[in-house]
């Protein structure tokens, strides 16, 4: 689960981390009061969306060369002007894709005198099972570009959960950023607090870009992006309360109500599969035969008829879907149960696009009989390769 920058900074502030003062607003008329509360003389008006690259982004319909989603000003009148120009508009960044995201919130923040910009992030290293730090002197830039062009400028290290954060980790951060003396000590304290926040809140990713050295020689988290481990949210009702569903795909929200693993994609073939590995293979083979999947959808090993029906409704709610492929391997899940669920779902939601069903495993013959005798226009398939070719052919034909 992701949260907005202003929410992330509030979380970091709980752990004593240095962040700038700011005020979130939701209406243009709130901008003047927010600016006066902060006092100036410099303000930063920041679009709040769940995507990076806001500063370089562009608003749909704005004149070419218009300012991006993060703007600096020395005037309260301009704060008001920018709020009016940004709220309710669609911001397109390198991470949103061409569709962009609507800006429903702004963060009015006090300006900062910046002497240097750094990059610092934390994430869970799945290979080591440890929390990893990624640190670079190249803050404020696309870290992917830095990694590609100058990988030697990125320093990474992991923290053993058996020991937790240690003084040498703070020294590693200070050394990577070229900090000495009091600033090195400050880097050590910051490292300790970041690790405490990351582990206490069950974060999966924490990115500070940029982490800045201010004009008076102190470190400050000038931007913050946080993702939380969705499997641990039951432990953090305070984090769940920060969820902004307007930033999420409505189909993914609906899928979560039925415990379905669903991710919307950009293709034309809807997929319903049981098992993450089989689902990935299904997506791959669709691409192999020249089409793009419209979603990743894993109904799991114990899907009920209700779950299958819900999955079908979610798939067919996507107007881009031109065909559906059901690919089920019945181990724990029985093929006849899936078949009945598919038939019930088709009757419940209607079917206006081609449907290919491939069943294999427990009670497969019973499942195929149910499909054959349903009277519905369902195309049976013998194996995954056959299924992929049939659905791709049907979509291209129709």
UniProtKB/TrEMBL annotation:
Domain of life of the native organism: Bacteria
Alphabetical UniProt keywords: ATP-binding, Ligase, Magnesium, Metal-binding, Nucleotide-binding, Tricarboxylic acid cycle
Domain ATP-grasp: from-to ranges: 9-241
EC number: 6.2.1.5
InterPro entries noted in UniProt: ATP-grasp, ATP-grasp_succ-CoA_synth-type, ATP_grasp_subdomain_1, Succ-CoA_synthase_bsu_CS, SUCC_ACL_C, Succ_CoA_ligase-like_bsu, Succinyl-CoA_synth-like
EC class name: ligase
Keyword Transmembrane: no
Listed pathway(s): One-carbon metabolism; formaldehyde assimilation via serine pathway; Carbohydrate metabolism; tricarboxylic acid cycle; succinate from succinyl-CoA (ligase route): step 1/1
GO cellular component: cytosol; succinate-CoA ligase complex
Residue numbers binding Mg(2+): 209, 223
Entry keyword annotation includes ATP-binding: yes
Cofactor notes: Binds 1 Mg(2+) ion per subunit.
One Pfam family it belongs to: ATP-grasp_2
Entry function: Succinyl-CoA synthetase functions in the citric acid cycle (TCA), coupling the hydrolysis of succinyl-CoA to the synthesis of either ATP or GTP and thus represents the only step of substrate-level phosphorylation in the TCA. The beta subunit provides nucleotide specificity of the enzyme and binds the substrate succinate, while the binding sites for coenzyme A and phosphate are found in the alpha subunit.
Quaternary assembly: Heterotetramer of two alpha and two beta subunits.
PANTHER family (alphabetical): SUCCINATE--COA LIGASE [GDP-FORMING] SUBUNIT BETA, MITOCHONDRIAL, SUCCINYL-COA SYNTHETASE BETA CHAIN
Identification of the protein by name: Succinate--CoA ligase [ADP-forming] subunit beta
Chain's gene name: sucC_1
């Amino acid at each position: 689960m992701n949260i907005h920058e202003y929410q992330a900074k509030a979380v970091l502030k709980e752990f004593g981390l240095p962040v700038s003062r700011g005020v979130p607003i939701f209406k243009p008329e709130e901008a003047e009061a927010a600016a006066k509360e902060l006092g100036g003389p410099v303000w930063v008006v920041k679009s709040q969306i769940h995507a990076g690259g806001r500063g370089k982004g562009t608003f749909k319909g704005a004149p070419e060369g218009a300012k991006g989603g993060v703007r600096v000003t020395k005037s309260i009148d301009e704060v008001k002007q920018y709020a009016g120009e940004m709220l309710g508009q669609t911001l397109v960044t390198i991470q949103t894709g061409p569709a962009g995201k609507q800006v429903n919130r702004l963060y009015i923040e006090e300006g900062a005198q910046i002497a240097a910009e750094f990059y610092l992030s934390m994430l869970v290293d799945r290979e080591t099972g440890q929390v990893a730090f990624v640190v670079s002197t190249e803050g404020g830039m696309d870290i992917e570009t830095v990694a590609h062009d100058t990988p030697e400028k990125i320093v990474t290290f992991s923290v053993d959960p058996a020991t937790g954060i240690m003084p040498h980790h703070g020294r590693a951060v200070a050394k990577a950023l070229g900090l000495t003396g009091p600033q090195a000590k400050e880097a050590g304290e910051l490292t300790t607090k970041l690790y405490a926040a990351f582990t206490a809140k069950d974060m999966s990713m924490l990115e500070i870009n940029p982490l800045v050295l201010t004009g008076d020689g102190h470190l400050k988290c000038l931007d913050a992006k946080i993702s939380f481990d969705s499997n641990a949210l039951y432990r953090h009702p305070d984090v769940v309360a920060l969820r902004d569903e307007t930033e999420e795909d409505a189909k993914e929200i609906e899928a979560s109500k039925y415990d379905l693993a669903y991710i919307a994609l950009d293709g034309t073939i809807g997929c319903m599969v049981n098992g993450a590995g089989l689902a990935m293979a299904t997506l791959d083979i669709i691409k192999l035969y020249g089409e793009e999947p419209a979603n990743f959808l894993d109904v799991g090993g114990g899907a009920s008829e209700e779950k299958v029906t819900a999955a079908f409704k979610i798939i067919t709610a996507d107007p881009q879907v031109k065909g559906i492929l059901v690919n089920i391997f019945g181990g724990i899940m029985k093929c006849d149960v899936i078949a009945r669920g598919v038939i019930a779902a088709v009757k419940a939601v209607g079917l206006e696009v081609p449907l290919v069903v491939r069943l294999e495993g427990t009670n497969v013959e019973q499942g195929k009989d149910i499909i054959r005798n349903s009277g519905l226009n369902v195309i049976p398939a013998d194996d995954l390769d056959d299924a992929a070719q049939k659905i791709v052919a049907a979509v291209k034909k129709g």
